[in-house]
Design a protein that fits this description.
Layout: E1 2-6, H1 11-22, E2 26-31, E3 47-51, E4 69-72, H2 82-97, E5 104-110, H3 119-131, E6 138-143, E7 146-147, H4 152-163, E8 166-170, E9 176-177, E10 180-181, H5 182-191, E11 201-205, E12 211-212, H6 213-223, E13 229-233, H7 238-248, H8 253-263, H9 274-277, H10 285-297, H11 305-308, H12 319-322, E14 330-337, H13 341-349, H14 361-373, E15 394-395, E16 398-404, E17 409-414, E18 420-428, E19 433-442, H15 444-471
Helix pairs in contact: 1-5, 2-3, 4-6, 6-10, 7-8
Length: 472
């Protein structure tokens, strides 16, 4: 089948793509920026790229008409008016899809079993209703919390459990949910493809365990062999809960706020026979956690929610930031010879995350704390793979915008709170010289004051970091 896959750079889409290809389908990946998706590891005759912005109806003319099915995996929980934008995107997509030869549209939404929905769950339902208004029959799969290596829920729970021996938590920890393993989600998404008995229908998809959020945290701790104490207090407001979640985990405040609102509502699936029809064995919560950690330990994490949390600074595409400016900027350039190019290159591409920044890590941690304090992403995002990075990956408070091991070049763009723009580049030249360049384009007077204030620290940190990289 010829399948159109939207959201191919997202957490779910990134995992669904190789499964569809393994099943012999031809997949057209609809992305907003072609520079974000590297398809070199796939057979070119099996996968194609098409650039389109779902908020721009005219850009959907770039998408093919000769398709058999489509997946709608576009999702957002942040940004001003995200609900209206999600609905508009869905309506634009339906108008396009009605002009194609598609026989089925598959959508992954959220479980809705309450009259009082959070803004996030209401937006999911609005999108589903918009998608079902077209000529192409919709198969809607409604999931609750998705558990898998790199998923937002998994990483947030991991942050809480691993960092806090004692938790003082709000009363919403008594809310019930029915988590589902990412492996099962992918099985459902591929299983309903082409099945006419699933056309124009919606199904809740869920795991076998109904748990409170407190039970989820304690079960996670049990799998990790950690002893944790959770005290629930009735006085913690949603705002305080959101700030608490924001400071303790790697999530943004806006995402934390929407998550807290969603967590006040029971999210338990309505029983159906879809698992039996598709011959899917549901994975228990504790086993899903163990599978996730097996992937992490084997360095096999395919996607992370942080990588799909694409910021507004990239609306004009990666290419705009690939050319590091030379004029009207401040730069810290340093060079050092290395005796072992391969070892130095390996350290460049393993930087950040658990590997740290090789020198004065406590200062990097303090900078991450300050960033969180002022509403930034902080340093907790880490990286999804210990040795490999790809364009679009989150790397602590940086974003990877160029990565090429053959060229021994890595270029990062800052997503921390700054009075300006910043790039950090590493490369090794033909003379075995490691070059490290920090570039800062200041915004007004505050930007210049920031640079000169930080200059002594930058010299100290960058010089030490470069020496460690070159030393191998």
């Amino acid at each position: 089948m010829r399948i159109l896959l939207t959201g191919a750079t997202g957490y779910i889409g990134h995992r669904l793509l190789p499964v569809l290809l393994d099943e012999g389908h031809t997949v057209i990946c609809a992305v907003r920026d072609k520079g974000r998706l590297d398809l070199k590891k796939y057979k070119p005759e099996q996968v194609q790229l098409a650039e389109a912005d779902l908020l721009n109806a005219d850009s959907l003319n770039n998408l093919p008409k000769d398709i058999d099915a489509a997946y709608y995996l576009v999702h957002s929980m942040t940004g001003a008016g995200f609900s209206d934008k999600e609905k508009q995107s869905a309506e634009n997509f339906v108008k396009y899809l009605d002009t194609t030869s598609a026989k089925q549209l598959i959508y992954l939404g959220g479980i809705v079993n309450s009259q009082q929905l959070s803004a996030h769950l209401q937006s999911r339902l609005n999108v589903e209703q918009a998608l079902s208004s077209g000529k192409v029959p919709l198969t809607a799969l409604r999931a609750g919390i998705i558990v898998g290596s790199g998923s937002a829920s998994f990483e947030i729970i991991r942050d809480l459990v691993e960092k806090l021996p004692v938790m003082v938590a709000p009363k919403w920890l008594k809310t019930k949910c029915q988590p589902i393993a990412i492996r099962n989600v992918i099985q459902f998404l591929t299983g309903v493809l082409g099945r006419e008995d699933c056309y124009a229908k919606h199904f809740d998809i869920y795991g076998p365990d109904v748990l409170t959020y407190k039970q989820m945290l304690l079960d996670f701790a049990a799998v990790r062999k950690l002893k944790r104490t959770i005290c629930i207090v009735p006085v913690m407001t949603p705002r305080i809960s959101s700030y608490w979640l924001y400071f303790v985990t790697s999530t943004s405040y806006e995402l934390a706020k929407n998550l807290v609102e969603s967590m006040k509502i029971d999210v338990v699936g309505k029983h159906n026979d879809l698992p039996e029809r598709l011959n899917i064995e549901l994975i228990p919560y504790k086993e899903a956690i163990q599978i996730a950690f097996d992937k992490i330990e084997q360095n096999l994490v395919l996607s992370s929610w942080n990588d799909s949390a694409w910021t507004d600074i990239f609306k004009e595409g990666i290419a705009k930031h690939l050319e590091v400016p030379q004029y009207g900027v401040f730069q810290n350039k340093q060079k050092e010879m290395t005796k072992d190019v391969s070892s130095a290159s390996a350290r460049i591409f393993a930087i950040g995350g658990r590997s740290g920044w090789y020198y004065a890590d406590w200062l990097w941690a303090f900078r991450g704390f300050l960033d969180k304090l002022f509403g930034g992403v902080g340093l907790r995002r880490g990286r999804k793979n210990a040795n490999e990075v790809s364009v679009g990956d989150a790397l602590d408070f940086w974003r990877v915008i160029y990565a090429n091991k053959q060229e021994n070049r890595l270029l990062l763009y800052a997503e921390m709170k700054l009075p300006g723009e910043a790039w950090l580049e590493f490369k090794i030249d033909d003379k075995a010289c490691v070059q490290q360049t920090a570039t800062f384009r200041p915004l007004g007077l505050w930007g210049r004051l920031y640079w000169f204030t930080m200059l002594p620290f930058h010299f100290f940190i960058f010089k030490g970091m470069l020496h460690k990289i070159a030393a191998g």
